[in-house]
Every structure is written in C-alpha cells, then in structure tokens.
Batch of 2 targets.
Target 1
Amino acid sequence: MDQSTLDQEIAAEQRHLDRVYARLAELRRSAVHAEREGYRLARVGNFGALVERDAMVFHAAQRRHVLDAEYEGLVFGRLDLRDGQTLYVGRLGIRDEDATTLVVDWRAPAAAAFYQATPAEPLGVVRRRTIQSSGERVTRIEDDLLDPDAAPPDMPVVGDGALLATLSRTTGRGMRDIVATIQREQDEAIRSPGSGVTLVSGGPGTGKTAVALHRAAYLLYADRSRYAGGGILVIGPSSVFVEYIASVLPSLGEDTATLHSLGSLFPGVVATRTDPPEVAAIKGSLRMRRVLERAARDAVPDSPTELRLLYRGTLLRLERAELDAIRDRALPRGARRNEVRRAGFDGVLAALWSQARRLGITGLPEQRAFEDELIDRTDFRDFLKAWWPRLHPRHVLAWLAEPRRLRRYGGGLLSGTEIRLLGAAYQGSASLSVADVALLDELDALLGKPMRPARQKRDPFQLAGGVRELSTFADRQRAARQAARERPEDYRDYAHLVVDESQDVSPMQWRMVGRRGRLASWTVVGDPAQTAWTGDPQELARARDQALGRRRRHRFTLTTNYRNSAEIFAVAAAEIRRAYPDLALPTAVRSTGIDPVQLVVPAPELEATVVTAASALLGEVEGTVGVITPVPRRDQVAAWLGAIGGERLQVVTSLEAKGMEYDGVVLVAPGEIRAEPGSGVRTLYVALSRATQRLTTIDPTG
Ligand SMILES: Nc1ncnc2c1ncn2[C@@H]1O[C@H](COP(=O)(O)OP(=O)(O)OP(=O)(O)O)[C@@H](O)[C@H]1O
C-alpha cells in the first residue's frame, strides 16, 4: 500500500475519532452539570429531594468517572460488515444526540464479532481494523481481511496484524492492555454464561489472568444489577491485580469488585509470608480440619482448673473433672464454642446449686435467687470469663505452637514428622503465613461468633416513618449502592467469584473460598502444571469440587502463549517435558531470534555474574527486569543488587514470581529450584516462563 492511501485511511479514522471525542466532551459537560444540579436540589431540603439528589449526584459522578477513565484508547476497533454497515468498537458505548451509535461497548453482543470472526468463519465481517491512538490522535491502523470475496475491489487493507505489533511492545509495571486484541478462544471464555462454573485452563502466558479480569468486566456489563449488587470477589496474586486494574480495567471499581489474595481473605489479616512447600502441604491438608476441631474444644491455657467459692460460710468446689464434664456437655460435637458459652455458664450454676442443696446450707434461697446472687459476685464472673472466654481464631491457632498440645491434636491424624515440622514452623515464627489464613477462617467457622444482644437489622428499602417503599429506579440504585457500601468486613454472599492461579489453592483454602461463594457463580482459571502443591492431588480435587458444588461446568482451554518469545518458551517447555512428557503445551507466537543465555559459573563468581547479567538486561530491554531466586537466596541476592535499576528491577523468589511478567529475567540457581522436593520442576517451569524478551539463567557449581 502506498503512503497516500495509508494517510487517507488514517485521516478517515481521525474524523470519526474527532466526532467521538467531541461527543465525549459534551457528555462529560452534562454529567458535571447534573452533579451540580444534584447539589442544588439538596438545598430544597425535603426528604424526597434528598433521595433524588443522592441518586443524581451518584450517577453523574459515576458517569464522569467512567468517561475520564476510559478516555485513552477509547475507540480501538472497526468492523466493515458484509451488509455495508460500519461499526466502531471501544471501551464504552457512545451515541450521538440523534441516537446514532458512534461506538459499541466491547462487551456488547454486537462487538463479539470483533473478537470471534476468523477467515474460516467471518461472521459477516469483511474487514477487521484495529485502531491505535494516543490521546485524541490516531497513530496506527492494522487490518485483517476476513472475507476477501465479499470485499469491494477498492477496499484498502493496512498492516500485518495488530496482535504481534502489540506483543512486541515492552511492558511497564502493570500488565499490557489486551482489550483491542482479545483472541477468539479468550473471548469465548470471557463471554461464557454467567451462571454455573466457568473453568479456564491453559499454559503460561495464555492470558488466563487477563481473561479472568475481562470476564469480571463483561459480567458487570451483561447484568449490572446482579453483579454490582451482590459483588464480585476476585482472588489471586493481589499486587498483579491491583496494577492491572489501575491501568487497564478502571471500570472494575471498588463498589463492584473486591480484590483479595489468599492471604487477605480473613478480616483484619494480611499475610504475605509463604511456608516451605512441605509445611504448606500440611497446613493445606483437610486433615487440619480435624486437628483444629480438637483444638477448638480444648481447655484454654492457664484457665482455672477448679472453682472454689465461699457461699454463706460454706465452701463450694468444682474439681477439674467436673468442670471438663460440664464443658463437654455444653459443647456437643458440631456446636460452636463462642455461641454456647451461656450453656457452659448454666452448667456451672446448676452444679453449684445441687452441691449447695446437698450440703444443706442454711438459709439457701430459691434456685433463681441463688444464681442471681452468684452472678452478682465479681469473683464468680471473673472465674467464668477465665474458664470459658470468648476465643478469637488467632488465640486457638497460637496453641499449635505448644508441642504437647500439638501432639494431642495431631495424634492419629498427622505423622510424627509432620507434627515436628508443623510445630517447628509455629515455634519459629510469630507472623502468620498465607496458609495460616485458611486455618483462621476454619477456626472462625468452628468457634462461631460471640453472642451479642440482637440488633435490629437495617432494611435498605425502609424509608422515613417505617414505610417500606421501593418504587423508582433511583430508590433501587440507592439501596443497592448502600448495600455495597455497608458490606461487612466478612461479607460472604458474593454474586460471582473469580479465582486466578487456582492450581495453588490448597484444600483448606478451597474451604475458605467456598464459604464466600455459596450463592455465587464462578470463574476459575489455572494451570495444573504450575502448581506448587506437594500434598495429595486427589484431596485437592475433592476439596475444589466441594467448594464449586454441583453447578454446571463450562470448560475452556487456551492454547497460545502471548507472553514469552518462542525461544524463551522452548527452554521452559523442555524443562517441564522432562517431568511430564505428555503434557499439552501452548504455542508461543512471537519469535525474537534471541536465544536465552544459560550460564554455569563457579559458586564464588555467582555474585559478580548476577550483577553483570542484571545490569546488561537493564540496558537491553526498555521495561522491567525480574531477578528470580530460590526462596532462601532472595535477601542475599537483593543485597548484591542494591539499588541497581531502581523501580525497573525487582528481586522475587520463585514462589513470588507466580503470575508476574518481566521483559527481562535473570534466574539465579535454577538447579536449586529444580531440586526442591515435590514441586521443584513445576516451580522452575513458572520461573522460566516469566520473561517476554530476554532470559539469562545462572547456575553456580561447587
Ligand atoms: N489477546 C491478547 N493480546 C495481547 N496481549 C495478550 C493477549 N492475551 C494475553 N496477552 C498478554 O500476555 C501476557 C500473559 O497474560 P496473562 O498473565 O493473563 O497469562 P496467564 O495465562 O495468566 O499466565 P501465567 O499462567 O503464566 O501466569 C500478558 O502480558 C497479557 O497482557
């Protein structure tokens, strides 16, 4: 194609973009006006006006936020259809004043063909055009001619494919924006039905995380009231998500999607420390459920072992065995300790009453008065509080650090070695690990909530004077919004759960996640070949099935690796193939002609070689460099590198590298990662598949 045709084509797209941005500015002005108008209404002061104001200001502000957030790259696609129509696809749907569609939202059914049409199945699309822009200026266009027979003879076709052009660009700290280049197999998973369970599997770099997040955005678009009202919980490596959402999917705002890592699902706790795989396997095993059940029924450390009470000159006594029997009676199997405290207290009072009667205390009042008298006494109340305190899951988990208790709880469930390993893990560190968070959640379910005086529930639809009214759209929106804002910290009734890196969710973690998705539909994405789980794989499958329940499953497999150059993925593939010769692997689509560098150096030269390699990569790639190390080496390697590279360089362990992506990677001591018991090869496969452009591996010898 000659330059003048290209210029003409770009100029034509520019005219459309000008129209779109002019309309956007108008919409923004009217949103700002509506917001102001809303505040003016507030001054009228009556209740109806306030409700109206609230709804108006909220909508206008939300609209303005969306318009601002989606400004960059607003229009990214154009379809020329067989019937002569032209359709523009973008981040938002925009209509002109006369209701002509200027842009179709990428999530709308009409936009599906943009992602799904292929030359074999053009779906009515003659030419698909990807438009790149910077601010309001068109910078580049790329075409795919999908149905040459239907194309008018003068239809220009520009460029050689948008996908490869996008993939060759360097990455910043966040993930790449894929909305303009979502591929057909990805789009099918994104638009899978909202109900049931959508399972997406695929090897490294196939876009699983990108698909999971775009699916959340799609569901919100498809049925906003259902998903925004109930909320979407997204679980995965949180740092990746936060950066991704900030830069790529701003429409997944705070009110609609809640982001958590497995270490932050329990209220008030944010754990980031990972246990060694052999400890994580014990903490993640379903056998821990029984271990914790025993702990949750056990006596509190240092609690009184007997009760002595002087009552009208007579000593009343309850011995340890008697107190234990009262606790056992008040706490039948399945009862929650914090919720049946009252029954325990009643048991103590009843035992004291029958003792007082047996002893024939003179002047003994009626049973009720006797009990009231005791309850009024501070020493008696102090005893009850110490004997059966309200327990927080953290208290009970800490008991596992006591060797004698742990042996008692774990006896017959865990092996001697496992008890020693677990004990050492709890004695060795006071901070909670990621795996501990699921144990806290289990304990929370076992202990129950402390009884509190019943409080009246707030009804979001209750208007002034107790009238239950739900009439206007504004009311409904207001109620849903309020419900979202008022979601308690341990909210569990999500409408949808998205689980990324699901291969690393342990059985105990599936129980924790499942508690939050009882009413939900699910999207679960993962790659079994990347799992760090070294425990029983069948137990893992069982726990997952239990969490997902009997809902219908929709399965999708992604087959193209968009991250790694073909040369880099060849090294990763060879590694995993040694352990799993029959594994289906994705195809890497992009070749750079640059092979990874694989160095073997004498141990004393490791430091200098790592520093040199990292500095070299910083010069060779524009974006980020990740230095990936075996877990025990991280701090040492970080010290070697000091401030080299600043923000552009990150030192992470092989476990922390999950889900991450860098332009260049220096992998330190891959042999040590491979040798880790249980999951070594799989962890190494993860580490080898993080780089987009350059990979240097450095193995020390001796
Ligand atoms: N259709 C696409 N167009 C452009 N880039 C894409 C596309 N799909 C995925 N990518 C890019 O490929 C990279 C890998 O995507 P992502 O991290 O979602 O893969 P993943 O399957 O979750 O990988 P892993 O299992 O290795 O963590 C990202 O940079 C992503 O932006």
Target 2
Amino acid sequence: MTNRTTNAAQAPSSPGRTFHTEGLSKVYKTGETSVTALDDVTLDLFEGQFTVLLGASGSGKSTLLNILGGLDTPTSGRVWFRESELTALSQRGLTRYRRDNVGFVFQFYNLVPSLSARENVRLVTDIAPEPMHEDEALGLVGLSHRLDHFPAQMSGGEQQRVAIARAIAKRPGVLLCDEPTGALDSKTGVQVLEVLEQVNRETGTTTVVITHNAMIQKMAHRVLFFTDGRLVDVKTNAHRIAPSEIDW
Ligand SMILES: Nc1ncnc2c1ncn2[C@@H]1O[C@H](COP(=O)(O)OP(=O)(O)OP(=O)(O)O)[C@@H](O)[C@H]1O
C-alpha cells in the first residue's frame, strides 16, 4: 500500500485493532444545502470480531461503512486500517486497499445474471492474490449443490450466500455488510446470518454488519449505536445468541 504523504502518522499502537477512526466527519453539499452524515466519530473495531452497526435511517451507518471500505473519503478526520492510514492514500492506493483487503456484501446481491454461482465467485478469485477455490467458498456458505445454478434459478437467500462466497473468496481482512438481510424474509434472513456468523468464526474475518433490525445486535460481539451521524453508545455482549434464537 502506498501512502500519498510520507509523514502519515501511525495509529496509536494496538495489535488487536482492525480499524481506528479519529474525529471522522462527512458533510455532503448539494447546492445550498449541506447534510452532515457523520459527525466527529472516533471508534475502534477489533480483529476477528462480529460488530453490528445500529441506528435509524439516515444516521450515517452506510457512510461510515463506505469510508471504512475505501469507497468514500471523509470530509475531515482520519481512518486507519491496521497500521495503514486510509486517509493518507491516493485513489489508486484506496483501490488497491479495497481489492486486497475488503469483501463487501450489499442488500441487493449484485450478481451477474448471465453467470453461474461458480462463475460469479470466479470474477473475484481470478484477480485476487491468494484466493480460495470458488467451490470452497461456495461450500463454506452451504451451496456446494448450486455451483452451476444461475441467479434466476436461486432463492434470494441463496443469491445472498453466493454474494457472501464472492466476498470471502479472496480471504479479505474485513467483511463489510450493508443490510445483508434487508431484502429477505425472516427464515432466509436467519440462514444468511448463520452463514455470516460461521464465516466469522471459522475464518476469523473481522465482520461489520449494518442492520435496521435491533434484534440482530444480540448475535454480535460488539454493537455501535448511531444517531444523527454521531456514535452515541457502544455495547459489548457478554453473551451472544445464535441467529436461530433471534426473535425477528
Ligand atoms: N451521496 C449523498 N449525497 C447527499 N447526501 C447523502 C449522500 N449519501 C448519504 N447522504 C445523507 O447522509 C445521511 C446519512 O446517510 P447514510 O446512508 O449514511 O445513513 P444510514 O444510517 O446508512 O441510513 P439507511 O439505514 O437508511 O441506509 C442521510 O441524511 C443521507 O440522506
């Protein structure tokens, strides 16, 4: 990863930390109006943890996730991924950071309709340095029996599991999920959460999940609460529940 500036400060040393942000703000300006999407957010996200971001619509969760994933940049403040300062990277550096370190899962699965499950995952394994075999990634999400199916031949939950396989096949350091169950019914949503929990447990991938469903917080190691762009509370769960126990 190349730093744009040579004097980019190191994040205060903390080996177990995946992300650290300091005073992160994002203001969107459209003509005369400006919207503060993130307001002075300082936080840590830890290696291997399953973290849930909770907050009302418009509270800044997606904006934060996009900045952590290198899809967007803050108006002010700083972000570190492990020892590297993301806010010191050029656009090219951010592209490399995303390619090498980040798996994304979105509400709508964004699969290529003309490609099979295996071929959709291969899109990523073809360009990653040390990927899993696509059949292994699809096996991890319980889809070994759907390798040659096309998106239109799969349920919403199965399509989301292909999207998860695609995201994890490059063995990313972080898996960032924006409303991964938002388009699914409760039964299918639980299955997708089970896959995310299992991937987190078996691969140790730091996982961040945005949700509107407050019940999902009970399966997380940590929960971050957002209101009007501000981080207003952080909770650590002493006891986590399984996705199947979630009262949807
Ligand atoms: N590209 C943009 N241009 C202008 N305003 C934006 C843009 N993206 C987000 N916003 C505004 O920033 C605020 C935070 O949006 P964000 O999508 O981060 O919230 P959220 O908590 O993820 O919401 P939701 O749960 O509905 O997805 C909102 O008021 C939103 O309208």
